[in-house]
Amino acid sequence: MRADRATAACSHCLLEVPETSAIRETIDGKEATFCCPGCMAIHALLRSEGLTGFYDRRGGWSPGPPETVRIPLDAFDGAVRASGRQAEADLVISGIRCASCVWLIERYLGGRPGILSTRVNFATGRARVSWDPSETGIEAVVLAIRALGYTPYPPDSLPAGDALRREASDLLLRFGTAAFLSMQVMLFTAGLYAGYFQGIDARYADLFRWLCFLLSTPVVFYSGAPFLLGALHGARHGAFGMDALVFLGAFSAYGYGAASLFLGGDVYFDTATMILTLILLGRYIEAVARSRAADGISRLVRLAPVMARKAIPDGRTVDVPVASLSPGDLVEIVPGERMPVDGNVVEGNSEADESMLTGEAAPVSKIAGDPVVAGALNGTGRLLVRVARTGADTVLSRVVQSVEEAQARKAPIQRAADRVARFFAPVILLIAAGTVFFGLHGGSLPHAALMSGIAVLVIACPCALGLATPLAVLVGTTSAQARGILIRGGDVLEQAAKVRCVLFDKTGTLTLGRPRLTDVEAIGIGREEALRLAASLESSSEHAIGRAIAKAYPADRRLPVQGFRAHPGEGIEGEIDGMRYLLGRPELLERFGVAIDSEASRAYAAHSAARRSAVLLSNGSKTLAILSTEDALRPEAAAAVSLLRASGTTVVMVTGDDPGVAARVAGGSGIDNVHARVSPEGKREEVRRARERFGPVLVVGDGVNDAPALAEADVGVAMGRGTGLAIHSAGATLITEDLLRIPALLALSRATMRVIRQNLFWAFSYNLAAVPLAVAGKLHPIAAAAFMVGSSLLVVGNSLRLRKGGR
Amino acid sequence: MTVDTTLLLIAVSLALGFAAWLLFLWAVKSDQFDDVERPKHRMLDDDPEERGPGRTGSGG
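Output (structure tokens, whole complex):
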């Protein structure tokens, strides 16, 4: 325990607080420290409710101090649905980061008087609370959630998110119904097939056929309704797509079976239900993935507070809605609050967590003159900020907007089978019509001619053809997952196979995104000694650079430090063996009256010019060493780039950083096509330009500033530790953050497309062989069934090869 | 005899399938599939303390 440290951790939010401003309280014989009355109140609340288990189960995670800017209570009135003796509301709760938060909220709300039930959805951050209106009300619910330090919002999420959620749940119902009924249908169909070989009592055969008919009717007309509507919609526009083909196949099989019940003949109800079930499953998985993505984006929009504390000339502050602020106004931001606007710090000294925007987890120091962005979380200091942009003009809003635009504009999933279906469906229809026509002309009975026409539809339609693409995509997607690449939609693999150009972001993508100690220059003492002192001083530092320095020296050989003290934005000080040391920017040393000699200042300038972050170590009278850190290149970056090159792909780097740093990273990774100082929207523009020059583009990025480019790209790949928005904008995510997975993804997607083409070829060959026989009326039903199963198995087996192939 | 048994078995299998389907309908309608993250943590939660026998009550 370092009891003599000048800062202490808040017992509730774990934030470091200076000793001078800490609130102390003795609880159960132990001393607790709080950063603010809010945290103290929450701690007391949890104690009185017997919920202190929260502190044990949360691990090292901090809930952050309670947010202080609040939306007016009456904004929640619209969220309440009352019905007699029960009222219910859906709320969106921000600040939920782990399962403990869910536990805490459910447990605490559940114990309030009048609350009937509480369920918090961990994945979406939504809560559904119901209560007895005679005992309590929405205000009490909102206040209770706030009392815990979370911020509830009315469920005014993007309407797109709600629609997508409804679509997913609708598809789940249709799929589930189809699946249950298909299983029954297959059972009876298996009985019928067995009957062909072993003989079956005619009564049972009839019963089985009728049961199959009854069971498959809801599958075709309820589960299959989206395909029917899609086919009708397409037909009105003169275009046949996958929907038309699927419905045509399922409906003709069903119709043929239904006719056979009365006219005699064979039934193919299992064909109808199986194809609908499998394709609905694919659609459902896709809809869930898309609604998740929309949720992620709408959660981000809510990061920016709706109320702000405006500083007025007489020195006081007033709470005003953010919308009423205009550029030039001054707002006060207290510790733990999110920035309501974009602006510049006028006064104060703090750090800000901008991870939702930059992907950089370490807090960024903010002193007068530094820019702040809306949505970033303020650290331990109070800031006075001059407003530059508000509302829809902030960096956060613009990024969210352009992601939504790009996603909306992206063409709906173009499956290979869609294009096949466009000419295939009309051709099949023509052949079937021809069969009926020539049958009648050749003197067949009307019902016989009609049956052979429908038989053509059944034989020709797309068991194997319908499976050819989705199955290969499914296997390709899961095998990508096994290689550490998470793929969100079926179109990603298809698009990736065509990629001609790969565009890399720099920070956090080609580089590790966190600093590493690269250089120690000692003046007057040994290099080892200088590093030992610096690492010891930084051992309790929370700053990214500090941690990089501390990590460079073994922990067990560091020296004990007394009187540690952080000077936000400048550096740290501490005592080792009775000697006071300073470690930080030149400003810190100057403030303590240390003269920086010419050698040290020259070295510092050189590091600054190369954009390396350097800090000076001093013993209070002179400079002892200069330590510099930089964001290092990922070790596998060069290998990944050369693999991409070898497969004929153009590699480009785009970064917001300045040309000097960009050139260094580009040189190290072997990229010669570099665009530096590019804004987030500029990156999107670069993607368009690259597409015109080289063809389809794959973008790899990690930050919110990459999100527009990721959404615009034909394929967006986010780094696993990237920001939520980057991951939601991208079609794929590298879980392992291994850049070699990019060439692997391209190889796998090309293999998948090859398999799809083979599948389509096999399915076609089957049709080419079977259709003439069916037209001639010579295809025995058992042979037709065997053909169907055979071609389906071929497609399945061929698709499964993707699990091993593609490296 | 055999006829009756077969018919009975068919009816039973249909009834079971139908029951499973009703269960599924209920599950979807009551949002059981909405959140698949939370339930796997739920088993780690303690029971409310006052319910657990032999435990010290809240506040001690």
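Chain A touches chain B through 29 residues (CB under 8 Å).
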